[in-house]
Design goal:
Rossmann fold, alpha/beta, Leu-bd, six-stranded mixed beta sheet, Peripla_BP_I, ABC transporter substrate-binding protein, signal
């Protein structure tokens, strides 16, 4: 707290030097007044701390997404713009109702300046009204473009770091088209993630003259998808796209392989962690996904804009959690930290942390982010684009023997 330190080392010392010339009673009154002034200053200085809340899926079906994000918090900046930063992490248990309650708590009780989260699309969508009402900027770690599009009065306060489902669906359609795919089936989660990803896959499939021949849904907690897979197989698709995130996304490809499916299988980028590889095992060999550059950072061309920072993040995260522990979901949290690291010093010019002026200025500074390189690409946001990434932020990856293998275009 440099201002308080300056007050103590400057004004207090000056008062002591002057005391030699003052009567004792007058000195006592001056000392009392000075102590009262310092006592009043202490709470003000303490409240100047920047508070960042995180709503993460640390338990429940999406825990494999939230845990790497939580573990990344230890790598986020401890001080920004001369202010210390406090991170408050809450578990939404992969549940939309809990995500809303956590968000309300962070805003009304903890008085945070910004929120990072949630880990999944349904929860992030549920949080939008709360952060808009609380005029608190939010940086989502989930995939759906609907989280930030269109930038209306409520999404005015919402940003995100992961690639959108539209970006990833277009990559799948491009890859499938070059591999001769004419018919595609879809199986996705029965929630906002599954629905929005299906809409994008269907749109880009049509653009590449491929027919959607089946569309099935399952719940994150379902023990079996045999019925859905049998319906898909009856249509004889050239490729199947799985629109799901985390370890529950392993169930469709495992069932497809068990039933003898030999066609192409694509995943959503929500499977970009080693827990998914572990659960899916050999059944995911030869399957594909559009992914964050972090998954294959060492294999990227030297001129890829994200390579240096991705490798740096991997080294720091694995030093903390062990070799092979890195995932895309942690990197999205790191990128949220990078956004705040650039935006907070700008916002401090408009007001102190904990004030509406600071939160509004922080939102404005996030929206004005331009030319920021992070672990996934280069961020250029605008009033109509609260992601700011371009196609360089996605890479096509094949799963081979429980490894991510970069597929050059």
């Amino acid at each position: 707290m440099p201002r308080l330190e300056s007050l103590e080392s400057g004004n207090v010392r000056a008062s002591v030097n002057a005391s030699a010339r003052q009567p004792r009673g007058r000195l006592a009154r001056r000392a009392a007044s000075l102590c009262a002034a310092l006592a009043c200053a202490l709470p003000v200085m303490a409240s100047a701390q920047v508070k960042i809340g995180l709503v993460l899926s640390l338990t429940g079906p999406a825990a494999s997404l939230g845990i790497p994000a939580r573990d990344t918090v230890a790598l986020l900046p401890k001080q920004i713009g001369g202010q210390t930063v406090e991170y408050i992490v809450l578990d939404d248990a992969s549940d939309t109702t809990q995500a809303v309650q956590d968000t309300k708590k962070l805003i009304s009780e903890n008085h945070v300046d910004a929120i990072i989260g949630s880990s999944i699309t349904p929860n992030s969508l549920a949080m939008i009204n709360v952060v808009a009402d609380g005029q608190t900027p939010m940086i989502s770690l989930a995939s759906s473009a609907k989280i930030i599009e269109p930038v209306d009065a409520k999404r005015h306060w919402v940003f995100k770091t992961p690639q959108t489902d539209a970006m990833m669906a277009s990559a799948i359609a491009e890859h499938a088209s070059t591999h001769g795919v004419k018919t595609i089936a879809f199986i996705g989660q029965a929630d906002a993630l599954g629905e929005t990803f299906y809409a994008e896959v269907a749109k880009f499939a049509q653009l590449h003259h491929m027919d959607m021949v089946a569309s099935e849904r399952f719940n994150r907690t379902d023990p079996s998808v045999t019925g859905q897979v049998l319906k898909i197989l009856a249509t004889h698709p050239d490729a199947v796209v799985v629109g799901a995130a985390g370890t529950p996304a392993a169930l469709p490809p495992k069932t497809l392989r068990e039933r003898g499916y030999k066609g192409l299988i694509y995943h959503n980028h929500g499977v970009g962690n080693n827990d998914f590889l572990r659960v899916c095992g050999a059944d995911c060999n030869g399957t594909f996904l559009p992914a964050s550059p972090v998954l294959v950072a060492a294999q990227l061309p030297a001129d890829h804009p994200a390579k240096r920072l991705a490798l740096d993040y991997i080294a720091r995260f694995e030093a903390l959690r062990g070799a092979g522990s890195v995932s895309a979901f942690g990197s999205y949290t790191s990128d949220a930290g990078a956004l705040l690291n650039q935006a907070v010093p700008i916002a401090l010019k408009a007001g102190a942390p904990g004030t509406p002026e600071f939160r509004r200025a922080l939102r404005d500074a996030l929206e004005a982010t331009h030319g920021l390189t992070d672990t996934n690409g280069v961020v250029n946001m605008s009033a109509t684009d609260h992601l700011g990434l371009d196609q360089r932020a996605r890479v096509m990856v094949e799963i081979r023997n429980a490894k991510w293998v970069y597929q050059p275009r």
